[in-house]
Amino acid sequence: MPTVNSVLGPLDIEDLGFTLMHEHIITASAGVTQNYPELLGANFMDRIVHGLTNAKKGGIDTIVDATTLDLGRDVTVLANVSRQTGINIIACTGWWCEAPFFFTNVSCEQLTKLFIREIMKGIAGTDIKAGIIKAASDAPGVTEWQETILRAAARAHLQTDVPIMLHSYSPGRIGEQQLAILKEEGVDPQRVKMDHSNDSTDMEYLTWLLEQGCYLGMDRYPGRGDASPIDRTKILKALIDAGYTDRLLLSHDYPLVQIIEESPAGTRPRKEREGLNPHGYMYIKKIVFPSLQEMGVPDSILSRLCTVGPRNFFNS
Q: What is the Cα Rg of the chain in Å?
């Protein structure tokens, strides 16, 4: 039976269950959990376990953690909380948007080897292996560093068959640039998940991505920017009606724990930020699914969302 690497070892794809395809257990900077845990607030591990326990009780079985090293990935934390709560967690290799100073001259070949090692042997001296590869570009388009990451992700994918997730800026159709580079490297778009797709309500662009073969990460709920929560659900409904149910991968892009902001100029107080989504990982079940029902989406379709699509994506 096909498997995917989870933080506790190989996981049968048929056992993924209800899966959230883009979340963050912790969002910080590399090394914060080991060096400056106080920046994450008191009892941050207890808060993670509490959030995941509630999600498990609410019917969430698996979470794809989209936290790369530069976003504060700590796989020992992920393994510990997975073991305590019973939620499957899939960790990623790859990189987010920016190159740290000493990485600017690291080659594509070097990065490819690093990503493959984290998939095949383990991360940070452990035997915990990545189950997905992440690359990223945002509003400015694909920068030189991000192109290097994209090509390394593509080459690691071709050597391991582990799929790719892309942080993308959908309002600017940046996925077109990202996909072109991956195609140059020989990647089948069916192995690619274009994330943050519900930041856009451009049906033509989203349909184009699907026609290329991509899966769409409809993974910003309740969201940010110009698209309101109801706008996101309306475009989700339109894509369901167009026949794409099993290639729409839902999630929240929600951090259970992140660096505490003590309201310096230009930042949003923590309580206000948390107030935007008081349901955490249960927002889709508690808010989005009832809205879809009111729009006429039948239970037979709702039962496929967050179950069939993730299985298909990892089993392509």
A: 18
